[in-house]
Design goal:
alpha/beta; globular; 2 domains; 11 helices; TIM Barrel; Nitronate monooxygenase; monooxygenase activity; monooxygenase; Aldolase_TIM
Length: 301
């Protein structure tokens, strides 16, 4: 499946950022385009998104993926799974819970299930539940982040897991992709690099902030969503938060009201410094491809 890709890259699913335009553009550029199903407010809207994406990527050199929140607070999970079975995304990525609820539906049409994990014990549980691959969310990831080095994480999992390994965390250029593949990964998650893409659903202010920000503008906290996430400090300040006193973890709730609670709180990962302008997805992929080829040539030398 992934052998058809131009680059072993996933334009990672980002809350309130990834939509049909970006997913389709990514697949047409030869990578995997992904979106979280909670970006749709209703099942009917999700039905429309999936129908459009499936139709417009049918002959694309890349693939598309749907990202499901399998946490118990997602009351729409059953409806989302029914639409997954209807539209058959080649890849389904589960997050914030076990991949088990998605296994039967996705395997029923021959799809691939990847499970987000942030540590080795969770990875073992996901593999035991039947996941075909693991998304190693590592230190440096934007949004809900991990804490392990991506290289140490890949090494630990590759020693005992024979399935697909996708890794994300601060990787924002082709050299980083080459390094991850050399270390044993099959795919690389890149979210922050696509935040300011022309096809991104991020509002203009969010895109401008990403372009203007660097590593010093990030903070990791569980005070917003209940799960540790990497936030842009200027967006927290603009919403009245004191970055030095964010407090304890919030109650985890990934239901429909999350759109209102988090729409003005903006996340980014440690690859933020690589975003220097607002560009089409195709141009971003072309740049990554050039960097990747140069890195592979260095390795060969």
């Amino acid at each position: 499946m992934i052998e058809k890709l131009r680059l072993p890259v996933v334009a990672a699913p980002m809350f309130l950022v990834s939509g049909p335009d970006m997913v389709i553009a990514a697949a047409r550029a030869g990578i995997v385009g992904a979106f979280p199903t909670p970006n749709c407010r209703t099942a009917a809207e999700l039905d429309g998104w999936m129908a459009r994406i499936a139709a417009e990527t049918a002959d694309a050199p890349g693939l598309w993926a749907a990202n499901l929140v399998t946490h118990s607070s997602n009351a729409r999970l059953a409806d989302d799974l029914a639409l997954v079975a209807k539209h058959r995304p080649p890849i389904v990525i589960t997050a914030l819970g076990s991949p088990a609820p998605a296994i039967e539906a996705v395997h029923g049409y021959g799809g691939t299930v990847l499970a987000d994990v942030i540590n080795v014990p969770l990875a073992r549980k996901a593999a035991a539940a039947g996941a075909d691959g693991l998304v190693c969310v590592s230190a440096g990831a934007g949004g809900h982040t991990g804490f392990l080095s991506p290289f140490a994480f890949i090494s630990a999992l590759r020693a005992e897991f024979g399935g697909l390994i996708c890794v994300g965390g601060g990787i924002a250029d082709g050299a980083g992709v080459a390094g991850a593949i050399a270390a044993g990964a099959d795919l690389v998650y890149m979210g922050t690099r696509f935040l300011a893409a022309e096809e991104s659903m991020a509002v203009a202010g969010y895109k401008d902030m990403v372009v203007a920000s660097g590593l010093e503008h990030l903070i990791v906290s569980a005070a917003i969503t209940g799960t540790p996430a990497s936030w842009l400090i200027p967006s927290l300040v603009a919403c009245g938060y004191d970055p030095a006193a964010l407090g304890a973890a919030a109650t985890r709730d990934y239901g429909g009201d999350a759109h209102k609670k988090w729409k003005d709180l903006w996340a980014a990962g440690q690859g933020v410094g690589a975003v220097r302008g607002i560009e089409p997805v195709r141009a971003i992929v072309d740049a990554i491809a050039g960097q990747y080829a140069a890195a592979v040539e260095r390795l060969a030398g």
